[in-house]
Amino acid sequence: MKALYVDRQTWQHRLPPRLKLIVLVTVSVAVFLLDRPLPLAIAALAGAACYFSAGMGLREALRRLIPALVTIVAVALFTLLFQSAAEAVTALLRLTALMLFAGAVTATVSITQFMDEITLAATPLEKAGLARAADIGLASALVVRFVPEILGRYEAISQAQAARGVRPRALATLMPLIILTLRDADSIAAAIDARGFRQP
Amino acid sequence: MKTRDLVLTALFAAIIVVLGVIPPVQLGFIPVPIHAQSLGVMLAGVILGAKRGALAVLLFLLLAAIGLPVLSGGRGGLGVFVAPPAGYLVGFVPAAYVAGLVSERLVRAGQSGGRQIAGFFVAAALGGIVIDHLLGIVWLAQSTGMGFSKAFLGDLAFVPGDVLKAAIAALAARAVMVGYPLLPQRV
User: Fold this and answer.
1) Do A139 and B13 make contact, defined as CB atoms within 8 angstroms?
2) HSE of B124, CA atoms in CB hemisphere, 13 A
3) In whole angstroms, what is the distance from residue B91 CA to residue A196 CA?
4) B3–A1: do the CB atoms touch at under 8 Å?
5) What is the pLDDT of residues B78-124, one digit of tens each?
6) Do A97 and A186 sit in the same domain of this protein?
7) Is B18–A90 a contact, with Cβ atoms under 8 angstroms apart?
């Protein structure tokens, strides 16, 4: 898994991650409060300026935008068809602005910085005895570690079934995949406890 | 939370990521793709139970939010949480919770196989269809200004696919319960 963070040094990378997240939240609230095309167009332009100067390179930047743009254009066409042209333009500009700002933050805040912010946000929960901040990092690391393993297992199961002439069906592959994966839980948990990664 | 529960949660989040590698089906006329990831969400609820299931989905969404391409089609980042179909995504967490809660109430070890499958199906449908679609419709209607009635009509296109997924989830959950009984060891 390759993260969507772009490892470059632009002015946006140098801003503190917390500030960028606060700006993003403020912008998301603001674009829903605005409903005239002109301020929304300015927001979309500002978003585009941030997004395209986040150090991605034009090709990568456009590639990331396509799935989101397809949905946004579909929504705008839908609105145009059933409501007015003005509302279609408003929806198009508003969603595009949001998408661009969010994309810029994603490209300029690294996984480590995000984890620090999450740990900080989880501190009140930890004080209340509801969760442990360190567990969030451990669980995330486990997921990243086991995705390739489970993918490999999925391949192995489908190949074994194909060799036996079983037609590929979702259920037939899913059942052994889940059972085999969850069975590992005990030994992984024992390994974590044996190494003292988690305070009891 | 015991280490074993933490590991089960993480492993299931990883299973949900893997299910997203299977490419989604676009219907074209409504801006939401059909993907196997929502099947994974139903499965998390009915197999792991309410608490662990919801936490597995939350962990999965957390990884998407911090910019790992874990969503179907290699998507991720904060943008997906503000896009028109974001309600369906965020709704995954309560969906898994409700599916888990209902299956914990309906399904017991001593019941006949048919009753267990029926119980799992009701649980998966209530969480994965009723709860998730409700949140999806609310956000779709609010974020695009298309109104509830139109959002609801558009949503209906996805109900048949999700009913099918609930059925697959029910069969798989019963098979897992027989093959590796996890449900009795709830947190």
Assistant:
1) yes
2) 30
3) 35
4) no
5) 888 888 889 999 999 999 999 999 999 998 888 888 999 999 999 99
6) no
7) no
Q: Cβ contact (<8 Å) for B182 and A182? A: yes
Domain that residue B116 falls in: 3-179
* A52 interfaces chain B, CB cutoff of 8 Å: no
Q: How far apart are CA B70 and CA A111, in angstroms?
A: 13
> Looking at residue B91, which CATH number applies to its domain?
1.10.1760.20
pLDDT of residue B51: 93
Residue type, A86: A
Cβ(A31)–Cβ(A40) below 8 Å: yes
Rounded Cα–Cα distance for residues B80 and B68 (Å) = 12
Closest CA to B135 of B165, B163, B155: B155
Q: Stretch A25-31: mean pLDDT, rounded?
A: 88
Neighbours of B42 (CB within 10 A): 34
Please tell me the least confidently modeled range out of A50-54, A68-72, A147-151, B12-16: A68-72
Domain range for A140 is: 131-194
Helix axes of B132-144 and A58-82: crossing angle, nearest 10 degrees? 90
Q: Is residue B62 a contact partner of residue A136, using CB atoms and an 8 Å limit?
A: yes
A108 vs chain B: nearest CA distance in angstroms? Answer: 10
Which H or E run contains A141? helix A133-163
What is the rounded distance in angstroms from the CA atom of residue B135 to the CA atom of residue B155?
11
